Amino acid sequence: MNSVLPEQIELDKKLKVLDRLKDRLADHEEEMIDLRAELEQFEAQYTMQVGRLYAEQDEVDALIAEEELKLVPDDEEIKRKVEELRRRAEESAERARAAEEHEAGEWVPTAEAKKAYHDLARIIHPDLALDAAEKDRRHGLMAELNQAYSSRDQQRLNKLVHDYRNSPDLVKGDSVGDELVRAIRQIYQVRRRLIELVDEKQKLVSSELFDLHLRVNAEAAEGRDLLKQMSGRAQVHITKSKRRLLNLQNVNAAQEEYVKEKFGMDIEDFRKN
Predict the structure, then answer these.
(1) Which stretches in the chain have pLDDT values below 50?
(2) Comparing C-alpha atoms, which of 30, 163, 164, 41 is closest to residue 109?
(3) Cα–Cα distance between 122 and 119 in angstroms, integer?
(4) pLDDT of the residue at 167
(5) Residue 125, number of CB atoms within 10 A of its CB
(6) In whole angstroms, what is the distance from residue 21 CA to residue 177 CA?
(7) CA distance 165 to 171
(8) C-alpha to C-alpha distance for 183 and 18, rounded to whole angstroms
């Protein structure tokens, strides 16, 4: 009668636990990459419809502050205001440019892509590695997998799955004791990664961007376009600000013209005297 070693019985239990955890980990990683892509797409949509108008508003605000500084050039508070508004305008313009360059196709991964991602992620995940070198190698593989998935490259996904399934890395030859230690460590690492993913998801769904995304979807379900409403209000505000800017420019132009006619010099030279 062949008796089964206690270590083998325990190993079998641990491997079953690990197998279930691998599925959960692959599901959570897939969920997060979908969520990130969805929010990235929405952010690009928001920036194109609303954010670019806010960028325009920031630029007008900076120009207004610069015109105000011309009226009181020694006012340190206005100088600081000009610097801050100019910095904000440049940052807003950069975000708007980035959104214009973003290719915002609708993120709808196919069932085939989801299966391929799940199958490979549960095998190559970096948190299944037991040493630094293997972890680094798996990080590279995982990055390649994420790139193929997010770019909807089904052919590349299939090739990655095929190549790794036929990899000599999957050949096992260690003792039962070593296998048991490996399984215990992998279970610990996978559980730790699952906690990290839960925390990451919580941060994303607690963000202002995600909240706006939900509100936009809720309004759309009622037949209303929240982003269009926001852009309309932004355009009204920009129009008012541009009128204020024009008034300030006219005041400064009139002041410069008066000094030129009265004293025959530029206003900067006049203030130095």
Answers:
(1) 1, 103-104, 168, 171
(2) 30
(3) 6
(4) 58
(5) 22
(6) 21
(7) 10
(8) 7
